[in-house]
Amino acid sequence: TMSSNQDPRIKIAVQKSGRLTEHSMELLVRCGLSYSRGRDRLICYGENMPVDVLLVRDDDIPGLVQEDICDLGIVGLNIIEERRLELLERGETRLFEQVSTLDFGQCRLSFGVPESMPFSGPESLRGKRIATTYPRIVADYLRRNEIDAKVVEFSGAVEIAPSLGKADLICDLVSSGATLRAHQMTEALTILESRAALIRSPVPVPPEKAQWMKRLLLRIEGVLQVRESKYI
Ligand code: PRP
Ligand code: ZN
Description:
Blueprint: E1 10-15, H1 21-30, E2 35-37, E3 43-46, E4 51-56, H2 61-66, E5 72-76, H3 77-89, E6 97-101, E7 107-114, E8 129-132, H4 135-144, E9 150-153, H5 161-164, E10 169-174, H6 178-182, E11 185-194, E12 196-200, H7 207-231
Parallel strand pairs: 1-4, 1-5, 8-9, 8-10
Antiparallel strand pairs: 2-3, 3-4, 5-12, 6-12, 7-10, 7-11
Zinc ion binds at residues 58-59.
C-alpha cells in the first residue's frame, strides 16, 4: 500500500527532472542513503535505511505531502507558496509543514517585461495582462499592492505569451535570466525569492517511523550545517 500510515518506510517526494533533482538526491546521499532505482525508475528504494524516494512532478509535491501520501518533500518555495494559497482558498486547514529551507535551488519569481514596454514600478502593472504559472502568488501580490490587472494563467512556456499577444508581460521564475533575454524581455521586479525547502506531512509520524524520521531530519540538518560552515 502507498498509504504512509501503514507503511513503516519513510517516503520522500523529489522532483523527477529539473533544477532541484540532482541537489535533492545528493543531499540524501550525503545523509548516508544508498538506493537502487526501481524498474520504472520512479522510485528509489533505500538499501541501508527504511527511506524511499518518489520521483514526481514538482507541482505535485506539496499535494502528496499535504495528503500524507509522502512523509517529506523537497520543493521550491515558489511552488510551496502557490499551493499554500490554493489550499487556503479552498478552506483547507490541514496544510503541509515547512521544516527548513535548503541551500540550493535559488531563483526568484519576477515580472518580466518586453524591452519595448516602459516600466517604472508596480504602478506600471495597472490594467495590464500578466501571464504566469503562479496565478495565486501574482493575484495576491496585486491585491496587497491595490493594483488592478488581469492574471492570465498558463501551465508552462509563459515567456512566449507576450509575443503571441496573449499578455502584456509575464511573471515567472528567473535564475540566469537567459530565458527572458532570449525573448527580448527584462526582469522588472521580484516578488518572491525562492530556494528549495523541506516540507513534511501534517499527520503525526507513526511510532514505527519516528526513530528513523528523527535520525534523517538530524542528518539533513547536519549536512546543511557542515556545508554552511565551509562557505563562511
Ligand atoms: C523556469 C522558468 C524559465 C526558466 C528561467 O522554468 O519558467 O523557463 O526556469 O531560468 P533562466 O533565468 O536561468 O533562463 P523551470 O526550469 O523551473 O521549469 P518549470 O517551470 O517548467 O518547472
Ligand atoms: Zn514545474
